[in-house]
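Help needed: design a sequence for this.
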């Protein structure tokens, strides 16, 4: 029986993790649920899974949740950064599903690691911002970091049973998003609703926009360098619109291993929760005759410059990936609020990175300072571009 904390339980990953836990009550028990402001859904999840602790964003949300749960006297409701840290370090928990969105997931993820909890990691920003710190602490605490991203789960599965030194190259696949074939001249007219309409995956708002700009793939490159101890120069992005091949790994003898499946996050989530076992979760198999062909192409970085920005940040290292991530989060939120255009997302990130002087050998406080600086710098840049 694995005892779980789910950080980000009301998001896409968290909801799917709970679906899997509900399918196998003899294997999983939910000890802590942590959400943000979606108190209504969190209350429903508490009714279903009866955790011992629930976490929300702030005191107002905690009060609202308490009213909704007046009949649940045994649920300890906490809130804020301290609450998320308590959730991540809850004494009786074995596995923390880290599925909070954005930089907010870094501190709870580190807290879980320092407490000796294994982590099913969906919060890629933790590794983008502070990958070296995260992986060093995980090694020191003998903690497993189990990737939840479908691409990194695929890589993890492809290299199982092989010698790490025999790995030659990683191929990260990308669907290309909803604007794969749209002329660049039409990008100025893109609305948030258009960018949220992903052709193959069902995801949350922020990651859907990142997929549309290809920034998500750039963040995954940085994440992969830390997870698999590989240079960004040995990672290649392939546009694969069918989203059936989740990623591939080549080895020194020329062999290539690929992991395939339907574009549904439940497979990767279930494997992270149950590894090394596999759970029969009722996933359909791809209809290969119906699909007809699996195609691959190189990304067009002229139309999707965010990908090059991510490679540049990865190459520079130090605090630059944290600045890239913070500027991207800020720009994406501004686009969703219709304060800047789709094209402006890359422009805001580029200008923020240009004005940043990376801090050498950064500690955690340096990274958090860089994150704070970048959010303000990006906000200033957004003010110049408001539609």
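Sure. Designed sequence:
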């Amino acid at each position: 029986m694995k005892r779980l904390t789910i950080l980000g339980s009301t998001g896409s990953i968290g909801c799917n993790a709970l679906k899997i836990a509900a399918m196998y009550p003899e294997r999983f028990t939910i000890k802590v649920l942590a959400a943000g402001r979606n108190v209504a859904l969190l209350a429903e999840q508490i009714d279903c899974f009866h955790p011992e602790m629930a976490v929300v964003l702030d005191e107002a949300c905690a009060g609202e949740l308490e009213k909704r749960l007046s009949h649940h006297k045994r649920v300890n409701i906490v809130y804020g950064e301290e609450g998320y840290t308590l959730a991540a370090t809850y004494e009786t928990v074995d596995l923390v599903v880290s599925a909070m969105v954005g930089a907010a997931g870094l501190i709870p993820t580190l807290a879980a690691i320092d407490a000796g909890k294994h982590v099913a990691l969906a919060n890629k920003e933790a590794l983008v911002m502070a990958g070296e710190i995260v992986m060093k602490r995980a090694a020191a605490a003998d903690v497993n970091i189990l990737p939840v991203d479908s691409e990194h789960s695929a890589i993890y599965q492809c290299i199982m049973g092989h010698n790490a030194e025999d790995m030659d190259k990683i191929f990260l696949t990308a669907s290309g998003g909803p604007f794969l074939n749209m002329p660049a001249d039409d990008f100025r007219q893109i609305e948030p609703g258009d960018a949220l309409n992903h052709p193959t995956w069902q995801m949350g708002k922020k990651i859907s926009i990142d997929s549309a700009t290809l920034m998500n793939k750039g963040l995954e490159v940085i994440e992969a360098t830390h997870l698999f101890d590989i240079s960004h120069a040995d990672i290649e992005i392939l546009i694969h619109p069918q989203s059936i091949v989740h990623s591939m790994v080549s080895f020194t003898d020329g062999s290539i291993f690929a992991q395939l499946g339907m574009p549904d996050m439940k497979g990767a989530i279930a494997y992270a929760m149950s590894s090394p076992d596999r759970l029969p979760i009722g996933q359909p198999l791809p209809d290969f005759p119906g699909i007809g062909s699996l195609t691959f192409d190189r990304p067009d970085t002229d139309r999707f410059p965010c990908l090059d920005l991510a490679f540049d940040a990865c190459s520079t290292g130090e605090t630059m990936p944290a600045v890239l991530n913070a500027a991207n989060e800020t720009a994406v939120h501004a686009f969703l609020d219709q304060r800047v255009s789709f094209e402006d997302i890359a422009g805001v990130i580029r200008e923020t990175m240009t004005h940043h002087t990376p801090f050498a050998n950064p500690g955690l406080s340096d990274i958090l300072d860089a994150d704070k600086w970048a959010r303000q710098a990006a906000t200033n840049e957004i003010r110049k571009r408001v539609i």
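The chain is about 45% helix and 15% strand.
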